[in-house]
Amino acid sequence: xxxxxxxxxxxxxxxxxxxxxxxxxxxxxxxxxxxxxxxxxxxxxxxxxxxxxxxxxxxxxxxxxxxxxxxxxxxxxxxxxxxxxxxxxxxxxxxxxxxxxxxxxxxxxxxxxxxxxxxxxxxxxxxxxxxxxxxxxxxxxxxxxxxxxxxxxxxxxxxxxxxxxxxxxxxxxxxxxxxxxxxxxxxxxxxxxxxxxxxxxxxxxxxxxxxxxxxxxxxxxxxxxxxxxxxxxxxxxxxxxxxxxxxxxxxxxxxxxxxxxxxxxxxxxxxxxxxxxxxxxxxxxxxxxxxxxxxxxxxxxxxxxxxxxxxxxxxxxxxxxxxxxxxxxxxxxxxxxxxxxxxxxxxxxxxxxxxxxxxxxxxxxxxxxxxxxxxxxxxxxxxxxxxxxxxxxxx
Length: 395
Fold this sequence. Notes:
Elements: E1 3-7, H1 11-20, E2 27-30, H2 34-46, E3 52-55, H3 59-67, H4 74-98, E4 105-109, H5 124-127, E5 131-135, H6 156-164, E6 190-191, E7 258-260, E8 268-270, E9 278-279, E10 368-370, E11 377-379, H7 387-394
Parallel strand pairs: 1-2, 1-3
Antiparallel strand pairs: 4-5, 6-9, 7-8, 10-11
């Protein structure tokens, strides 16, 4: 089978395709923008050049990371509309090609969700991404996806393999075949509840843990006090909502768990509550011990965002570590050599992209940097602050 890939984000080729198996691609194209990538993929499809065409369009990702993943915002909305036009061009090419009598499949997905300008927290809202499977094969189901099983990007690989050859899908994959009438999916994994540590519900109303700071690090106001913000979300008005101490909760069906803050200028904010792990239905694990209040402490020598991080993905780190976890020196953010990139201070003005210090401007799993070696980029080794430290810093 012949395979070609056209991308804008070049690490997909340099760090994935070529890294794992340089013989995978019969042709590769790295464009300077989505229009160049679309034109090249469209050309391959219309000319019937390859059996498999992979296209990476990065415009929505760039708009989200620079201006926010908000469908109602002008920048992101315009990027989505433009992306729809480009996908339409590829679909037209596929339909034109189908006149040759080929059986074809299209799999359309994104690589992640988004909240604010980052990938967002590890929760159902950010993990649910679009997955569309379509084609002219009679084996493909037509219609809306089941509400309780919308699929995920884990399903992309087994779905394509099943289309090519039903017997080629190996066992042990995390994903399953999606959208095919000749394949029965296993029961969707069920969230394993542990309300004192994480949440299983979309709105996180089940959370009963002791996180007491917002996602931006502001200390939560106690639910039984009326200062600095007066309110009616009190334990007496919402007796079943777990409004204890100043712990993050969701008594009134907001999008996520939240709290009023001790900042007089910020009435309330969402909290960063982890999503419980999912697995095939099995007995629920024993819950964690009940929460205990956190006592704020502050050690200037060990508790500072120049020393450690209080956020899950370490986007708040502002220290001076400038080597990766393997000891590779970091490339300056304002330099385009040896690796060209778009993670610049002008594109990510709030990310602290100074010198060559490790940072996380785009929601990776932790702080990172481009390196001055042949390795394009790598995560850095930055410690996490203790919960007590984070409360103290937010106070």
